[in-house]
Design a protein that fits this description.
elongated; 2 strands; two-stranded antiparallel sheet; mainly alpha; 12 helices; 71% helix; 419 residues
Length: 419
């Protein structure tokens, strides 16, 4: 970038000197003020060269290609750089004139050139060389900061978008190998393509996060399909085992109900067994449904078979839960009777352990409980009451009978203990 930049510049009001050298009157001579200005001009030349060759500056040279926040920042940076390039020759000319005045010992002219109206600006206003130097250095610092912000945005977004693009390309290749697509992959590609286009024009105005998350969802979805395809044969075998388990639970529930009704009088809480036809009849019957899924898998149509098997498993789990609940309910009365039998025998052993096995009361209570439990059909309520009576009696100690009646007198003894 050079001084001739094309269009006119709206000159900003020059700020008060930020690093202005003191005047000759305050420093004792214009020579020292000239030295400060020459040092400032050298700093300006070095800063302009560095900015002109910096990669960051290339990002803002053509602001017309940008939009949004990035266009505003690039426009500000470009305007400040243009101002610095166009006013830099004005500053150097003023310093050269001051140097000639100082060399010729024209003190009045040097004082005038160092004063607040010593430099005439292109817009017709004037300022001091020190104020102009400070203003230009402010412009360069602001331009460098703006360019740096744009560069930082590119350095953040471009690598993230590149990584997301590489990941999505692998996901798309894998999906193609599998013969699948899906909305997750399509959405990720759409979001990512839009952001890649926007990143060149407005790196400050985009957030790669949504595209990154969409790519991750697509990757997870395709990986899930890969796993489903690999596990499908074993999953179909497991489904066959589940089907057999459901059939067995239904049969067991029916047999348990029959056994309970034949051994327990008026059992409560039992459930009617499930109809085995549930496995075979109707459009959602598990057995023919599984057959269709197995046929699809055998034909290579795993894309249909895998998700279909997931749905089948959900229905199978629900039916298996129902069949197990029926079985448990129909087994419960006999299980309760058997528990009572065990309780009765356990407390009979306890009675023997404390020496009460021959107690007439306990014997009668035990026999009453045993008769109730081993009668077919068994009346559970009555049997439970008899067992509770026996348990309570075992846990209640028998009263102490006290001392017995005195025995017959023994033989009389003399004072030596002899008869």
């Amino acid at each position: 970038m050079g001084p001739a930049l094309g269009r006119a510049v709206a000159w900003p009001a020059v700020a008060a000197p930020r690093r202005a050298p003191q005047t000759a009157a305050s420093r004792g001579g214009a020579e020292r003020a000239l030295g400060d200005l020459r040092a400032g001009v050298s700093r300006m030349a070095d800063a302009l060269f560095r900015l002109d060759t910096a990669p960051e500056l290339a990002l803002v040279r053509d602001g017309s290609a940008m939009v949004g926040q990035s266009a505003v920042l690039a426009g500000e940076a470009t305007a400040r750089l243009r101002s610095a390039w166009e006013l830099y020759p004005v500053l150097t000319s003023a310093v050269d004139a001051l140097e000639e005045a100082v060399a010729g010992r024209r003190e009045a002219e040097a004082e005038r050139l160092l004063g607040p109206s010593g430099v005439a600006l292109p817009d017709g206003t004037s300022t001091s060389p020190a104020a102009l130097l400070a203003s230009l250095e402010d412009d360069l610092e602001a331009a460098q900061e703006s360019a740096g912000r744009l560069a930082a945005a590119w350095r953040d977004t471009v690598p993230r978008l590149d990584r997301a693009s590489a990941t999505l390309a692998m996901v798309e290749a894998r999906a193609s190998d599998l013969g699948v697509g899906g909305p997750d992959v399509v959405q990720a590609r759409s979001l990512l393509s839009d952001l890649v286009r926007q990143s060149a024009a407005d790196p400050l105005g985009i957030d790669p996060g949504p595209a990154e998350r969409a790519v991750e969802r697509a990757r997870a979805r395709v990986e899930s399909l890969v796993e489903q395809r690999a596990s499908l044969p074993a999953d179909l075998e497991g489904a066959r085992r589940t089907l057999a388990e459901i059939s067995g639970a239904i049969d067991a529930g029916r047999h348990a109900l029959a056994a309970t009704r034949s051994r327990i009088a008026g059992p409560s809480g039992t459930l009617e067994p499930l109809d085995p036809a549930l496995l075979d009849a109707g459009p959602s019957a598990l057995r023919p449904w599984l057959g269709r899924l197995e046929a699809a898998a055998a034909a290579g149509n795993w894309v249909t078979a895998a998700p279909g098997l997931d749905q089948w498993q959900q229905e199978a789990d629900r039916l298996l839960h129902r069949a197990r609940a029926v079985l448990a309910a129909n087994q419960a009365p006999l299980a309760q009777r058997n528990d009572l039998r065990g309780l009765l025998d356990g407390f009979r052993a306890k009675a023997g352990a404390v020496g009460r096995a021959e107690s007439p009361t306990l014997t009668a209570l035990y026999r009453a409980g045993r008769d109730a439990l081993y009668t077919v059909p068994c009346h559970l309520d009555t049997a439970e009451a008899r067992v509770r009576d026996f348990v309570a009696a075992v846990n209640t100690p028998e009263p102490d009978p006290g001392p017995g009646p005195p025995g017959p007198p023994g033989p009389e003894l003399d004072d030596r203990g002899l008869r």
